[in-house]
Structures are given as C-alpha cells and as structure tokens.
Specification:
alpha/beta, CBS-domain, 8-stranded mixed beta sheet, 35% helix, binds acetyl coenzyme *A, binds L-homoserine, transferase, cytoplasm
C-alpha cells in the first residue's frame, strides 16, 4: 500500500432517528447514513472537509477496507497525507448519499413500517435531501463549520447546494465537472438509462429483491452512461478500432471490437455493485437539480458566502465547461469570491477521477490560500467590560477557555483575559478586571492570510488571536494549535 494512503479504514453508520421530511413533502423514517472519515478533527473542529461523491460513488473515498482489497477508495489519489485533501491537516468526511445502495438508506433498504424493501415505494429524493441528510451527520459529529465541501459531477451539485443552503457553515467550496442546473441533454441520457432498467422484465415494477434483479437493464444503463463519461478522443486513444481477439473481423454478433468488450465489462461489473432502483432514484435527483430562482442563477446563488472554486474539463461533453462558467458568471454578478480553472484533458467527464495531478495541484492551491476568516471560530464566548474577575473566571472554567475576549457595549474588543491573568489576580488578590486584562490586544483581520496571523502569534508567543473587523468589532478567534495544523 502507498505510504501516502490513509491506510486501512472502516465505514461507520449513523441513524437519524424519527421522521425526516423530504423536499417533495414525503417523509422517511430512521434514515441510516454510511460514512467514512480520514485524518483527525482539530480541537476547534475547524478543519473538516466534506467530500460529496458522484452518481455511483460511495462513502469509501480513500484507503482500503482490508489489505486484500484489490482497489482503494474512489478518490485515493486526491485524499491522503500530502495530497490536496491532506489528511495530516484536514478531517475528511465522505458519506453515501440518500437513495444510494452502499450503506445509506435507499430503495433496497427495508421500510421499517413493512419490513420489506422500499423498492419503488421509496419517495423521490432531491440533491437538497441528500445535503440535508449530510447536515444531520455533520451535526451529529459536532461540526459547526465546514472548512470546505468538495465534489465532482453529482458531488459538485451537492457542493453547490451546500453553499446555497448553508452559507454560514461552508467556508470554501470546490465544484468539479458539474452544473447548477441539469440540462435537457443530461436529463435525456438519464432517461435512456432509466428506460433500459424499467424495460427489463426482471425489474418487476421495482420489486425484485427476492428474485432475479434487472441486470440487463442496469448494465445497459451503465454502458450508455459510461460512453458519456469518456470522450471521442479518449476512445480513439484507448481503443481505436482495435479488435478484442485476433486481427480479422469475425463478421458475427460477438463483441469483436475492444470498445464493445470494454463496455460490456463496465456494464456487467456495475451490476455487481449497484442497485437498479437506486440508479432510478439518484438519476432523478440529478434531473430535478436546478439552483436558479425565478429563472435567475444569480438570484439562486446570492446567499452564498463560501469562497468558490469551479473546475471544468475541456473534453467533458456531459457537463461541458459552459455550465461551470454560468455558475462563475452568476457568482461574479453577486460580487462573490470565485476562481475558475479549466483542466486541459482528453479524458472527458471522468477526468475528475483520472486527472489527479491537475486536480491535486488546483485544489491544493485553493485550499492552502487560506485567510483568517476561513478558519476562525465565529462563536466566541466573551464578557462585557466592567464585570468581576470572578465572572470572567467562571466563564473561562465553564467554557474550557484559556483566552476570553472582553467587549464593550458595541461588541468592540476592549481587552483580553487569559488563564494566566486569572492566576495572577488570585496571587495578587485583585478584584478589578481592568487591572489584569490586556488592553493592547494583538488581533487579526478576517481577510489577512492565515500565515500572517500564525507568524504574529509565533513572534509574540501567544496562542490565540481575536479577529476583528474594520470597526474593531469582535468577529471570531483563531487558535495557534489549529492554525499550525492547517498550514502544515
Ligand atoms: C465518485 C465516483 O464517481 S465513484 C465511481 C467511480 N467509479 C466508477 O465510475 C467505476 C466505473 N469506472 C470508471 O468510471 C472508470 O473506469 C474510472 C474513471 C474509475 C477509471 O478509469 P480507468 O483507470 O481509465 O479504467 P478503465 O476505464 O480503463 O477501466 C478499467 C477496467 O476495464 C477493463 N477493461 C479494459 N479494457 C477492456 C476490454 N477491452 N474488455 C474488457 N474489459 C476491459 C480493465 O480490465 C479494468 O478492469 P478492472 O476495473 O476490473 O480493473
Ligand atoms: N464515474 C462517475 C461518473 C458520474 O459522474 C460515477 O459513476 O459516479
């Protein structure tokens, strides 16, 4: 196993107890979420990155479940020590989507009310529902801010949805080979796939879990979809008109060309790991995805606060660069902080899984150009000027703090009290907070590079910096231990 891998990992499960309301108005009971995590969550819980998977991905994004596993998780090249999603710095989370078939509740799961698989009685779900389920997981993990949300393809849709629906949680968002609105062509390809599934007699109106499954329909759906993940150039490069066996045409109906054999293999192996009903539901969720509001993408995106990075792939004809550029335009219309990169690649849509060199470079740069505001803790316990030392000590004890900012009636920083100041007060029998607090406080600004804040802390041997805006209002705090971990 590569030294740069997260190594052997396991899948965890969390149940969201009770009724869960879906965007379509229906409910699901006791949703189970399968998830994996890599790296460690820091003390402030400010280094979490949520990775959202694509259509047929799963929670197993990196590492191996056992040393015998033939292949690692699907984004092994991007997640791990020293990689863009650096597990020495970040706590990476990936969960299987709602409606999936890799551990999270989906149509193949048992309906608790009937004891039978949901099948086609499973409610139609949306990208918004997938994100709402992830939000429950993040809450369960005690995470209040996401340093970043990252995803390709359908994972990019979830990432955009996160940025729109939870602007105060998401600090950075990386959207790769994706769109804010599913196009008619995308819907059309999905519909052909669904049609292949429901036309298979073994589909049996979705009720096939005790008999034969619709493997022919599902394999055909995958074959069609797989073509859309490649490009004309990559197919020329990969297969050309090469034959699978021998040098002469057989002039029969066998899989004479390599590309035929390849597609057959891709279709068949897919049926070993994916549920046909899940394919119906997850593609539907993709089709319904549309972040525009009143016909305007700019309006739909106006609440976003995260710094955004959009990446597209030159040869991706399924999610063409124009779709990412539309998102960029909508964000620029709102004066948002957005970067855009187009990766030159002939691999087509699946380049987001294959061009790991490019992806690592671009995503690493985006994530490491971090400002104070990207990592600061916004919920800061404070005390008002003029309170007693005892009150300050009590707050620090109850909140487990070593630094406590003192603010005036306008919320402006007036000083800071440390646990050392409290010890001094006890030793000197002081009662007046004003006597012991530091009034000339070193601070950081949200827009300054994190490295500048870290250097200031190092130079002055201090372990926390209050963050203030231009009016000196306290807006957050940063802690040296967490910062050092993030800047590596
Ligand atoms: C986030 C997510 O999207 S998770 C889901 C990602 N995974 C998938 O989508 C699985 C489907 N696969 C793919 O999409 C792509 O294969 C990728 C992007 C993952 C990997 O691409 P590549 O590394 O170029 O692999 P490639 O497409 O050549 O497929 C290789 C497989 O095809 C087989 N193959 C290659 N040529 C032929 C052929 N002529 N006949 C039969 N089989 C063939 C190989 O033996 C290999 O089999 P294996 O997967 O069992 O090892
Ligand atoms: N290979 C990807 C393509 C869809 O983005 C998947 O199967 O999920």
């Amino acid at each position: 196993m590569s030294e740069r891998s997260v190594g052997i990992v396991g899948t965890n499960f969390h149940t969201i107890e009770g009724e869960f309301l879906l965007e379509g108005g229906q409910t699901l009971k006791d949703i189970r979420v399968a998830y994996e995590t890599y790296g460690n969550l820091n003390k402030d819980k400010s280094n979490a990155i949520l990775v959202c998977h694509a259509l047929t991905g799963d929670a197993h994004a990196a590492g191996r479940h056992s040393s015998d596993d033939r292949k690692p998780g699907w984004w092994e090249d991007v997640i791990g020590p020293g990689k863009a999603l650096d597990t020495d710095r970040y706590f990476v989370i990936c969960s299987n989507v709602l409606g999936g078939c890799m551990g999270t509740t989906g149509p193949a799961s048992l309906n608790p009310d009937t004891g039978n698989p949901y099948g086609i009685t499973f409610p139609v779900i949306t990208i918004g529902d997938m994100v709402n389920v992830q939000k429950e997981l993040i809450d369960y993990l005690g995470i209040k801010i996401l340093f970043a949300v990252v995803g390709g393809s359908m994972g990019g849709m979830q990432t955009l949805q996160w940025a729109v629906a939870h602007p105060d949680i998401v600090r950075k968002a990386v959207v790769i080979a994706s769109t804010a609105v599913s196009s008619p062509q995308q819907i059309a390809f999905n519909e052909v796939g669904r049609n292949a599934i429901v036309s298979d007699p073994d589909w049996n109106e979705g009720d096939y879990y005790s008999g034969k499954s619709p493997v022919h329909g599902l394999a055909t759906a995958r074959m069609i979809a797989h073509i859309t993940y490649l490009s004309d150039d990559s197919m020329h490069d990969k297969f050309g008109r090469k034959l699978q066996q021998g040098e002469n045409y057989k002039f029969d109906m066998s899989h004479d060309f390599q590309v035929e054999s390849y597609l057959k293999y891709q279709g068949e192996t897919f049926t070993e790991r994916f549920d046909a009903n899940s394919y119906l539901y997850v593609t539907k969720a993709v089709d319904y995805f549309d972040l525009s509001k009143n016909g305007s993408l700019a309006e739909g995106m106006k609440d976003i606060k995260a710094k955004m990075l959009l990446i597209s792939i030159t040869s991706d004809w399924l999610y063409p660069p124009y779709q990412s550029k539309k998102v960029v335009e909508a964000l620029l219309f709102n004066d948002h902080d957005v970067s855009y990169r187009e990766i030159e690649s002939s691999y087509g849509h699946d380049a987001f899984l294959l061009e790991s060199g490019h992806i690592n470079y671009v995503v690493h740069n985006f994530l490491t150009h971090t400002s104070v505001g990207d990592v600061m803790t916004e919920e800061v316990a404070t005390i008002r000027e003029g309170v007693s030392i005892e009150t300050a000590a009590k707050v620090m004890f109850e909140e487990g703090l070593t630094h406590l900012p003192v603010v005036n009636e306008k919320g402006c920083l007036a000083g800071i009290v440390t646990s050392w100041d409290i010890s001094k007060a006890v030793a000197l029998k002081s009662v007046d907070l004003d006597d012991i607090m530091t009034k000339e406080v070193l601070v950081a600004m949200p827009d300054e590079p994190i490295i500048a804040g870290a250097k200031r802390m190092e130079r002055h041997s201090i372990s926390a910096l209050p963050v203030v805006d231009e009016k000196k209002r306290l807006v957050g705090i940063i802690d040296s231990e967490d910062i050092n971990r993030l800047i590596g």
